[in-house]
Amino acid sequence: MVGESTARNAKHIHLIGICGTAMASLAGMLQGQGHRVTGSDAAAYPPMSDQLRAMGIEPMQPYDAAHLEPAPDLVVIGNAISRGNVELEAVLDRRVPFTSMAALIHDEFLRGRESLVVTGTHGKTTTTSMLAWIYEVASRKVPALAPSFLIGGVAENFGNSFAVRETRPFLLEGDEYDTAFFDKGPKFLHYFPDAAILTHVEFDHADIYKDLDQVKTAFKRLVNLIPRRGRLVAFDGSENVSECVAKAFCPVERYGFKEASFWRLMDFQAGAVSRWKLMRQGEFFAELELPMAGEHNALNASAAAALAAGQGLDAASIAEALKTFRSVKRRLEVRAEIDGITVIDDFAHHPTAIRETLRALRGSYPGRRLIAVLEPRSNTLRRNVFERELIESLAIADRVILAEVYQSENIPVDERLHPAAVVGALNLAGVPAQLLADADAISAALAPELQRGDVVAILSNGGFGDIYNKLPRAIEVSSSLKAS
C-alpha cells in the first residue's frame, strides 16, 4: 500500500526514457515512495523536463551505459526503448532486474485501490484531468474522495501529472500503445479497471497496429477485464465503440447527443465557454459550463461527469469542477499573445484530433484568420495511411504550413507521408499551404506575414525544434521592425 515504503526497503530505480509523460510521472510517484530515482533520455524538453527538475531529478542525456554504474536495484524500460539502446543492452548483458512502467504501476500503486481508467483514441488526457479535478472538488466535502491520479500531461488545476494519496480512488489515463519491447500488449491491460471510460475508437499507432481490427481487439480486451460489479461509460457516436462494448459483462452507459443516450448532452452552446444540459436517462442531471471550446471537450466533460456520478459523486461538485477546469498543458494552450497575434500549442497525433482542435479554435476565435502549423511527428501522422483525412482536417484552417516528416528515414518510403502532396492538395482546394523544413525556417517565414488578429495553431506531439519559443521571439522581432 502507498506510504509503506521506508528507508529500509527503499530502492534505487532507474528509468530509461524518463522524459515521456507517463515515465516522468512515475518518477515522481516513486520518489514520493521514498525510492532514489534516476533516469535518462535522448533529449529533455518541456513540460516533463521542467516537472522532473522541479522534483530534483535531472534527466541524464544522452543514453549511456555509464548511467547504470553502480547498478540500480531495478530498471524501468520505457515503451519507446528498443533493442540497440546502449542502456538497454547493458541491462540485458548485466542481468539488472527490469520491468515496464505499466507493470510497476500495478504492482506498486494499484493493489487495494479502486482503479478508474480513461481510455480511447482521442481525449484521454483531457478527460482524465477533468475526472481528477471533479474528484478533487468533491473531496472538499468528502475527504475520502481525494484522488490519486496518473495523467499523460500536466493538468493545470494541479500543476502536475500525478498525485498519490492514501485514499482508494486511483484515476489513470489508459493508453492502448504497447507496454515495452518485451511486452507488446497495451499498457492499459495492466490497470484492471473497476470502472472505465471509452471515448472513441479509431485506427491509430500505425507502427504497432496493422489495421483497425487490431485496435478494436485491444479495446475489447480491456472491456473484458471490467468486473460485473463495475461500469463502463462509452461514447455512443461511434460504431467502433459499439462493437468494442457489445460483449461487456458490466453495465454500459452510453453518452452523446442522441435522444436515446443514457447520458445526453442537450442545448449545447458553443464558444470559448461551452454550456449545455446533461440528462441522465431522460431526467435532468446538471447544467454544465466548461471554459473550453468544442463539442469534443463537452463530450469529454460529460464522460467524466457520468463516471463520477456513477461512483456516487454529487452533481453540484461535478458542475463546480467543470466550471473551474483549467485544461492541460499542450491542449489548446495559449503560449503567447503578441500585438494581437495569438500562438496556441496543441498536442496533435491524429487527423481527427487536428480536425476537432481547428474546429474548436474556430469557435473560440470567430472571424479571425487561423493558421495551422503542423509537424508530422506521431507514428500515425508520419505515415500516409490517413493522408486524405489529414488534408480534410487541415483545410479547416485559412493557411497551412507543414514541416518535413520527423525522422522520415525511419519510415519505409512506400508508407511515408509526403508533405509536398498534402501541400499540393490543399493549394488545389484553395487553402494556401507551404512546406518548410523546420522550426527555424517556419519562424523566419511566418512571423513577418502575421497580422493583428491572427491565430497560429502549432500542432505536434513533440518538441518541434522549440518552435513554441522560436516563433514568439520571431514575432516580437518582426513587430519591433514594423513599429520602427
From TrEMBL:
GO molecular function, one term: acid-amino acid ligase activity
The Mur ligase N-terminal catalytic domain, residue ranges: 12-105
Domain Mur ligase C-terminal: start-end pairs: 330-462
Domain of life: Bacteria
Keyword Nucleotide-binding: yes
One record GO biological process: cell division
Family annotation (SUPFAM superfamilies): MurCD N-terminal domain (SSF51984), MurD-like peptide ligases, catalytic domain (SSF53623), MurD-like peptide ligases, peptide-binding domain (SSF53244)
InterPro entries linked to this entry: Mpl, Mur-like_cat_sf, Mur_ligase_C, Mur_ligase_C_dom_sf, Mur_ligase_cen, Mur_ligase_N, MurCDEF_pg_biosynth
A Pfam family of this chain: Mur_ligase_M
Domain called Mur ligase central: residue spans: 118-308
Assigned keywords, A-Z: ATP-binding, Cell cycle, Cell division, Cell shape, Cell wall biogenesis/degradation, Ligase, Nucleotide-binding, Peptidoglycan synthesis
NCBIfam families xrefs: mpl (TIGR01081)
Name of the protein in its database record: UDP-N-acetylmuramate: L-alanyl-gamma-D-glutamyl-meso-diaminopimelate ligase
Organism encoding this protein: Terriglobus roseus
